[in-house]
Amino acid sequence: MRKNDIYFTPYSGPAGGWGALKSTTKHLLKSRNAARNIFTLLKTNQPTGFDCPGCAWGEKHDPAKIRFCENGAKAVNWEATSRKVGADFFAQHSVSWLKEQSDYFLEYQGRLAEPVRYNSDSDKYEPITWTDAFALIAKHLKALPSPHQGAFYTSGRASNEAAFLYQLFVRAFGTNNFPDCSNMCHEASGYALTSSIGAGKGTVTIDDFEEADCVFVFGQNPGTNHPRMLDTLRDCVENGAQVLTFNTLKERGLERFQHPQNPVEMLTNSSKPLNTAYFTPKLGGDMAVIRGMAKHLLEREDAGESLLDWAFLKEHTQGYEAYLERVRETPWSKILEQSGLSRDDIEYAANQYANAERTICTWAMGVTQHYHSVPTIHEIINFLSLRGNIGKPGAGACPVRGHSNVQGDRTMGINEKPSQALLDSLEKRFGFKPPQEHGYAVVDTIRAMKEGKVKAFIALGGNFAAATPDTQATAEALQQCDLTVQISTKLNRSHLITGKDALILPCLGRTDIDLQRSGEQVVTVEDSFSMVHASGGVMEPLSSEMRSEPWIIASMAQATLGEFPIDWMATVEDYGHIRNMIADVFPTFTGFNEKIKQAGGFYLGSHPRERIWDTPTGTAVMHSHDLPISILPLNASKMMSDQSLVLQTLRSHDQYNTTVYGMNDRYRGIKNERQVLFINPSDIERLGFEAGQKVDLFSLWDDKVERTAKGFKLVPYDIPEGNIAAYYPETNPLVPLDSIGEFSDTPTSKSIGVDLKQHVEDGKRIL
Ligand SMILES: Nc1nc2c(c(=O)[nH]1)N[C@H]1C(S)=C(S)[C@@H](COP(=O)(O)OP(=O)(O)OC[C@H]3O[C@@H](n4cnc5c(=O)[nH]c(N)nc54)[C@H](O)[C@@H]3O)O[C@H]1N2
Ligand SMILES: Nc1nc2c(c(=O)[nH]1)N[C@H]1C(S)=C(S)[C@@H](COP(=O)(O)OP(=O)(O)OC[C@H]3O[C@@H](n4cnc5c(=O)[nH]c(N)nc54)[C@H](O)[C@@H]3O)O[C@H]1N2
Ligand SMILES: [Mo]
Question: What residue stretches are annotated with the Molybdopterin oxidoreductase domain (predicted)?
């Protein structure tokens, strides 16, 4: 590869360390509230404080240790700002004017401080009382000819208490239309795990990493997105474990790491090698990589070695013979072509696995946002099963969740396809028959809005307009609604894409003190390791007009349903009442209010971990899939020419999903810009462009709709030829609504076929 470092000056220090602390401090100071925020920060993930609103990585309980990471600090600080957005702000700025501003500008204005309603005559948001806001919601919801014309979105920061009340309200109202951020995130993990091992969650705890002797990390960037995971990986390496990383990009955080809280390492500026091997497969190539490793194991087994755990396979799985046959039949040529790795690399990785007694596989969006994500995760489970690596200490499957309580929200029943057990349990406890038919997930909700089948949209957090695919189509869909309601902490693009009636309801965040009639409340959250723990805010709310999420949900329910099936307002006087209801519905939460008094929280348990398989056959199921015909969705691949490229959309270091904290991406060497396109230098040359030149992206999808994202600067990067990368949400206009994963319906945000053209200035914004 031709080296080109004119435009690309990657961060030269180790990830973590001084660079991380310096950046954290800069963000703290920028909020004009430094002392208050540092105080807040120090309470993050402490037994007395709040759960970090950053990621869902777990934490060993150790009261002596201050736990924060750079990105947790940014998330806390962003929420705990002293800037406010109240009626005066909206009186000054029309929605049309706000639409012209950047996402960074919108969120930077501060915390939403009072409820407002959109007035289309003035094109401005105007104050509304809470009572009138709930009356308006009730009026719209009651006017719907069918409850299925309402859709109720959840973003993964909602607490268990808020999520439980929300699903109860929506089901009592009469629908399972629960689009949620999970649909765009780990949906494929939930689907693949449930259909293979009978439970849609990971099977490991944080302690398992101490016992593991091999960890495979597929398709994730923990240096930016789960920084505390790097501590764990570093400890694994120190314990002598192999850490094998598979990532299309060489991510700095995974290459080297030093911890900001280890002064000795910081002073010497030394960094230990973290990963013992790093492979860069093609986008979407992981299934082929894993198939290749399985094939090599099988070849060694067939040659007389004893590597497979036949006892496990025979006693605990179904379908292993068919799977092994499928592995034998898969030609190496196809494995090498789709993976983009050499046979040596794949065999090397397979041999590390063969040497290990206890192996963990972790993964995130690099695995879940493809067309064939479910088959890929099935392949991961098969791979683990081959050597009995499920249900023994130090081994198992670890989908690393994103939002801090996205896993808990699902546990609480935020699910458009609820299990019969959940519905029956709700019926038994609350005495009404919940809707039995499945509801709409994210993509179906957008389609239904387009077709006029969904008329009222309520969002418990998040940024639906910016986070979802096909931005133009989604915006048009949202605008066809009669009512859009956003329950939010910060101003974002979704507030500007309004239905005929639109409300913004300002809520408390994780860091705020939540005072209800019985006193200060705590809520609970669940991390990626199924640990549930309490979280209580520490900051005085900025405005007396902000309300807690449970209170807002209870008030909407009361206004819409009266006291059916419960006295909503009495329930939120003390969240202990909500937890009692949760315990009645979910047996694993028995004694909930007592259990959360334990420092560090309690473990929900995992059946697969005990080798109990809640599947129809009572065993784990090894699914055999062929490798996909193409690693791009077919509708895109048939449009590809030899000039076309495959785009992945990912996160920069200075963002939290659609929240843009700043314009740098330190580890990737980007300063002060986000409209960049990471590309292999030989592709730049082959396509006749120059590094630094601006290009427009045109998405390939066989439906004659032009989808573009314009003005991206070419940045030469260490990325496989034919693959490119750019930030989300700027690239969401390129993701066709119909480009979704098989079985999961997850937008294929990591495999989009595109053509590049020289940039033409036209000044148009998509939204
Ligand atoms: N600071 C911060 N923390 C966050 C978030 C945030 O935005 N900012 N978001 C939170 C959320 S909701 C989530 S879901 C997680 C997301 O955490 P990640 O999954 O780490 O997020 P992405 O930025 O989408 O990164 C995808 C990574 O996978 C790689 N990749 C992409 N495609 C492929 C592929 O086909 N194969 C392989 N092997 N690698 C691939 C990319 O190069 C990139 O390193 O982080 C959570 N934590
Ligand atoms: N192209 C592309 N698209 C993607 C992805 C991708 O990798 N590529 N990733 C997908 C993934 S993994 C995810 S999880 C989704 C994320 O989708 P969302 O969860 O919908 O988006 P966020 O950006 O996390 O939402 C940010 C907003 O949430 C609100 N908020 C923050 N904290 C709170 C709170 O405590 N309560 C309430 N009520 N509101 C709060 C603020 O107003 C803030 O503006 O995006 C998905 N979209
Ligand atoms: Mo996510």
Answer: 117-487
pLDDT in tens, 680-718: 999 999 999 999 999 999 999 999 999 999 999 999 999
- The environment of the single-atom ion ligand 3, i.e. residues with CB closer than 5 A, is 185, 402
CB 462 near ligand 2, within 6 Å: yes
Q: Within the chain, which residue ranges are assigned CATH 2.40.40.20?
A: 634-765
**Range with the lowest mean pLDDT among 47-61, 417-431, 692-706?**
47-61
Cα–Cα distance, 7 to 670 (Å, whole number): 9
Residue 467 Cβ contacting ligand 2 at under 6 Å: yes
Cα–Cα distance between 412 and 390 in angstroms, integer?
A: 25
pLDDT tier at 605 (50, 70, 90 boundaries)? very high
697 lines ligand 1 (CB under 6 A): no
| Alpha carbon nearest to ligand 2 atom 23, residue | 658
- The domain 84-179+419-590 is placed in CATH, from the list 3.40.50.740, 2.40.50.100, 3.90.1150.10, 3.40.50.2300, at 3.40.50.740
CA-CA distance, 727 to 657, in Å (whole number)?
Answer: 10
- Give 399-412 pLDDT, tens digit per residue: 999 999 999 999 99
**153 pairs with which residues across the strands?**
459
Ligand nearest to the CA of 749: 2
- In angstroms, what is the span from residue 194 Cα to ligand 3's centroid? 19
Atom of ligand 1 nearest to the CA of 55: 47
Amino acid at 108: Y
Give yes or no for residue 471 having a pLDDT over 60: yes
pLDDT beyond 60 at 53? yes
Residue count of the chain: 767
Helices and strands: H and E segment counts in the chain:
32, 31
The architecture of the domain spanning 634-765 is Beta Barrel (2.40)
Q: Is the CB of 410 under 6 A from ligand 1?
A: no
Mean pLDDT of the chain: 91
Cis check for the bond before 729: say yes or no (omega within 30 of 0).
yes
Which superfamily, per CATH, for 187-400? Dimethylsulfoxide Reductase, domain 2 (3.40.228.10)
> Which residues lie across from 526 on neighbouring strands?
532
- pLDDT (mean) for 191-213: 97
Cα–Cα separations (whole angstroms), residue 287 to 229, 293, 367: 23, 10, 9
* Contact in structure between 233 and 258 (CB atoms under 8 Å): no
Residues of the chain with CATH 3.40.228.10: 187-400
